[in-house]
């Protein structure tokens, strides 16, 4: 089967951009990790070599497993049973392949079990995964949420949650509610502080991608009586603690393998991430910066797939005695 990395030379353009040398040195803290981890790069060339090798593995898994599974995933889709999401069988196979290859928590530091990838090669991987199965990219790409924990949570929370993401547990970002879509300042899900310093969450979230994930980032109203974004905080909910159920999943036109969930929170125990009141105005804004890159990569990946499919079809399909690509009207649509 095709390797979705090596068969697309355009991708390398980003990896070899002149700015990369500086970016990699910053991410690798001048290659000091090499003193602690024998698989950490020694210098820029070594780092480039390791990105190249990992991306080849991504390309191989995408070409051999995820892309061939995509049609089955689309037909079977996920379902809800007793408040839990059951993924399509081939989605489970995809996740398993990514876990075994160490492709979860890719951008997280090595001390937590990640590969310490800079955003550029990580987003290249997202592009490749999206070309294989755009819906699966939604699940796999939510590993991005670990970045918010790494940036804003305390050390104890980082040590608890990030290694789990690197081992393959999935994440979700629970922001949207029935009456709070574009206008996230209207979020009403209620967070109540407990004497032991934990919080209880009550309310409803809607349109949550992979809403039955293992670890959720949740935007909730911690400041009673407030109405705007300054009363909202960010929480981490651990599915092992219980209290969140999936009421239904959306019946979508596409990306069917990715469950878009409505969630009910009933006294769901959670911990505060970072400082109170900064949930929307600081943490969600940072989270969205990463999510936007992921969604952009998803669009580029699915466009690559559509282009290749259209080109192959135009070369194969014959009308009026010749392949339709030979007609200027078709050729022009496919020329780049
Ligand atoms: C497949 C899918 C996956 C999703 N995954 C997640 C997820 O993982 N986590 C999560 O929290 N949310 C998720 N969402 C929700 C998504 O973030 C919201 O749909 C989005 O924020 C828009 O909210 P809304 O659908 O309520 O639309 P509305 O906010 O009601 O907007 C309706 C329309 O009005 C327009 N509009 C609204 N306000 C303005 C304005 N001020 N100026 C001009 N136009 C405006 C909008 O552009 C839109 O066209 C997902 C949605 C989908 C469809």
Number of domains: 2
Low-confidence stretches: none
Main sheet record: 7 strands, mixed
Task: Give the ligands present.
Answer: flavin-adenine dinucleotide
Mean pLDDT over the residues: 97
Structural class: alpha+beta
CATH class of the largest domain: Mainly Alpha
Q: If you consult CATH, what is the topology of the largest domain? A: Butyryl-Coa Dehydrogenase, subunit A, domain 1
**Count of helical regions:** 10
How much of the sequence lies in strands comes to 15-25%
The secondary-structure element order is: HHHEEHHHHHEEEEEEEHEEH
Shape: globular
Keyword list:
binds flavin-adenine dinucleotide; 43% helix; 2 domains; 336 residues; seven-stranded mixed sheet; single chain; Butyryl-Coa Dehydrogenase, subunit A, domain 1; alpha+beta; two-stranded antiparallel sheet; Butyryl-CoA Dehydrogenase, subunit A, domain 2; 10 helices
Quick synopsis:
This protein is an alpha+beta fold. It has helices at 12-15, 20-27, 44-76, 89-100, 119-132, 134-141, 146-152, 155-167, 279-316, 328-334, and strands at residues 79-81, 84-86, 171-174, 190-193, 199-209, 215-221, 232-238, 244-249, 260-273, 318-319, 322-323. It folds into two domains: 9-169, Butyryl-Coa Dehydrogenase, subunit A, domain 1 (Orthogonal Bundle), CATH 1.10.540.10; 172-283, Butyryl-CoA Dehydrogenase, subunit A, domain 2 (Beta Barrel).
């Amino acid at each position: 089967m095709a390797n979705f990395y090596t068969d697309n030379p355009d991708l390398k353009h980003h990896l070899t951009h002149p700015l990369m040398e500086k970016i990699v040195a910053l991410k690798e803290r001048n290659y000091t990790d090499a003193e602690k981890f024998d698989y950490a790069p020694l210098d820029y060339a070594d780092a480039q070599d390791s990105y190249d090798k990992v991306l080849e593995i991504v390309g191989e898994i995408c070409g051999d497993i995820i892309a061939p599974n995509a049609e089955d995933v689309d037909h079977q889709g996920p379902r809800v049973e007793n408040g839990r999401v059951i993924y399509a069988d081939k989605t489970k196979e995809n996740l398993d392949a990514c876990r075994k290859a160490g492709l979860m928590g890719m951008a997280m530091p090595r001390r937590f079990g990640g590969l310490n990838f800079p955003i550029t090669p990580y987003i290249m991987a997202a592009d490749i995964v999206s070309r294989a199965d755009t819906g699966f990219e939604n699940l796999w790409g939510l590993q991005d949420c670990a970045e918010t924990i790494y940036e804003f949570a305390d050390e104890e929370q980082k040590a608890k949650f990030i290694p789990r993401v690197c081992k393959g547990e999935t994440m979700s970002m629970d922001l949207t509610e029935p009456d709070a879509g574009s206008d996230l300042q209207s979020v009403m899900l209620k967070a109540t502080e407990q004497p032991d310093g934990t919080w209880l969450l009550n309310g409803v979230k809607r349109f949550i991608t992979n809403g039955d994930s293992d670890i959720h980032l949740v935007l909730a109203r911690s400041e009673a009586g407030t109405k705007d974004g300054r009363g909202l905080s960010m929480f981490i909910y651990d599915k092992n603690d219980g209290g969140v159920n999936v009421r239904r999943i959306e019946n979508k036109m596409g990306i069917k393998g990715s469950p878009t969930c409505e969630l009910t929170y009933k006294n769901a125990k959670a911990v505060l991430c970072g400082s109170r009141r900064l949930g929307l105005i600081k943490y969600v804004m940072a989270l969205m910066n990463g999510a936007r890159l992921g969604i952009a990569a998803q669009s580029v990946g699915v466009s690559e797939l559509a282009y290749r499919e259209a080109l192959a079809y135009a070369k194969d399909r014959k009308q009026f005695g010749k392949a339709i690509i030979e007609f200027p009207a078709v050729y022009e649509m496919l020329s780049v």
